[in-house]
Amino acid sequence: SSRIFSGMQPTSDSLQLGNYLGALTQWVALQEGNQAIYCVVDLHALTVGPDPAVLRERTRRTAAQYLAAGVDPERSLLFVQSQVPEHAELAWLLSCHTGFGEAGRMTQFKDKSGKQGAEGTTVGLFTYPVLMAADILLYDTHLVPVGEDQRQHLELTRDLAQRLNARFGAGTVVVPEPHIVKATAKIYDLQDPTAKMSKSAASPNGLIELLDNPKVIAKRIRSAVTDTEREIRFDPVNKPGISNLLTIYSALTGRSVAELETAYEGRGYGDLKVELAEVVVDWVTPYQERVHAYLDDPAALDGILADGADRARDIAAVTLDRLYERSGLLARR
Ligand code: ATP
Ligand code: MG
């Protein structure tokens, strides 16, 4: 039995299909036989300067989507990051072990701070990967199920863990491994199939937002950018649009990509898009019903999250005590 930890940011009203296929389906699968801990990382979402009321609503919506996807709060631990203060406390400690240049090499920071450069961004966005390392190391995590875009942050987390063990003695923290499932590790934007699908993308037209109107979802799939050939073939280099649609189709139906290529031999892109849109709508409709059932009872939802935070704190406090003690801080009480 391994300890599993992962989280998502409440940066949108809805998760997008990449979050579901790249991470959430793995979360659900890994609950079996493991000790899984899943977090809504609201402190991370503060890096994008959200409206307070909107952030609170999105935090509940994100938790409801974990539950609707199959995260089971009886078997696993489900909570909100800001309700366990040890995350922010460990992040400070880790920031004192992180090189400034090391943090500066994180490509997500470069992408997200974008054209504004260092002057237009915040220290919080810069130290985001350090907080993420704290999230993971607090729970003596073995495996972190994430999408491909988080691989570099996981590498930093591992480097920090090894550094702490070298400095303060073997066994100070567990060195975690990423759990990245290749087939669905990176779902692409439907309008720009060379860019990652992201819930906070500048334009929503290339997104499949799981809580969107199913008619809009179907329309976005039918409008997906493809190429000028006719052949339905998995070839991510030359046919990124078609390959992305085949990846999504395969992941949602369990049919292999090879089987889909055969089934669509001699047929047009239009057929593939229309039929994939049906697959997505058939799957997303009951998912939306489950999400709304959780959102209709916010007191019950908040209760699940508060209970999860209590249980998470019991684990997090032990790790932080150990790290404080080894760092030479006086014992916490
Ligand atoms: P944001 O634009 O706010 O960063 P996001 O869509 O990237 O939103 P995150 O909350 O940053 O979502 O990430 C949640 C999880 O979803 C992470 O494990 C991440 O690796 C995974 N993920 C995000 N986008 C994709 C994608 N396009 N394909 C596969 N996995 C993804
Ligand atoms: Mg992201």
From TrEMBL:
Subunit composition and interactions: Homodimer.
Record-given protein name: Tryptophan--tRNA ligase
Family: Belongs to the class-I aminoacyl-tRNA synthetase family.
Highest taxon, organism lineage: Bacteria
Classification via InterPro entries: aa-tRNA-synth_Ic, Rossmann-like_a/b/a_fold, Trp-tRNA-ligase, Trp-tRNA-ligase_bac-type, Trp-tRNA_synthetase
Name of the encoding gene: trpS
Residues reported in the UniProt entry to bind ATP: Q9, P10, T11, G18, N19, G147, E148, D149, I187, K196, M197, S198, K199, S200
Motif position, 'KMSKS' region: 196-200
Chain sites annotated for binding L-tryptophan: D135
Reactions catalysed: tRNA(Trp) + L-tryptophan + ATP = L-tryptophyl-tRNA(Trp) + AMP + diphosphate + H(+)
PANTHER family xrefs: TRYPTOPHAN--TRNA LIGASE, MITOCHONDRIAL
Subcellular location: Cytoplasm
SUPFAM superfamilies associated with the record: Nucleotidylyl transferase
Major site of localization recorded for this protein: cytoplasm
Class of the enzyme per the UniProt entry, highest EC level: ligase
Pfam families in the cross-refs: tRNA-synt_1b
An example molecular function term from Gene Ontology annotations: tryptophan-tRNA ligase activity
Gene3D superfamilies for the chain: HUPs, Tyrosyl-Transfer RNA Synthetase
Keyword list, A-Z: Aminoacyl-tRNA synthetase, ATP-binding, Cytoplasm, Ligase, Nucleotide-binding, Protein biosynthesis
NCBIfam families attached to this UniProt entry: trpS (TIGR00233)
Known EC number: 6.1.1.2
Functional description taken from the UniProt entry: Catalyzes the attachment of tryptophan to tRNA(Trp).
